Amino acid sequence: MNREMNREMKHDIKIAIIGDFEPERVSHRATNEALRHAADALQFTTDTDWFPTQSLETEAGRMKLKEYHGIFCAPGGPYRSMTGALEAIRFSREQGWPFIGT
N vs C: which end of the chain shows fewer Cβ within 10 Å? Predict the structure, then answer.
């Protein structure tokens, strides 16, 4: 799709960010900014939510990921729960959910 066609379209996209958000971490603030810049460049509106890794240790916590169009595993750990982070990755892989991690 060329850029002109894309400019005519308006999309809403929800991204789940896997990580334990800490506002003092530059990488965490940069993650929010990068997703916002990418959405702006593509003329999308984006809604992002950070998912604490401990919340993803349970099936109920992981099932909330289904409300999102994609999952981004945030850089700049350490994660409070490596188990929760890995379970979110497993969920994405097994459910065929769009995923990116760094």
Answer: N
Phi and psi at 61, nearest 5°, equal -65, -45
**Domain chopping of the chain, boundaries:** 10-101
Sequence letter at residue 91: F
Give just the sign of the alpha carbon dihedral 60, 66, 71, 74: negative
For 42-61, write each residue's pLDDT tens digit. 888 899 999 999 999 999 99
Give the CATH fold of the 10-101 domain.
Rossmann fold (3.40.50)
The distance in angstroms from the start CA to the end CA of the chain is: 26
Output the pTM of the full model.
0.84
Q: Which two tokens stand for residue 83?
A: 């188990």
Compute the distance between CA of residue 76 and CA of residue 5 in angstroms, rounded to an integer.
36
Cα 21 → chain centroid: 12
Are the C-beta atoms of 67 and 14 separated by less than 8 Å? yes
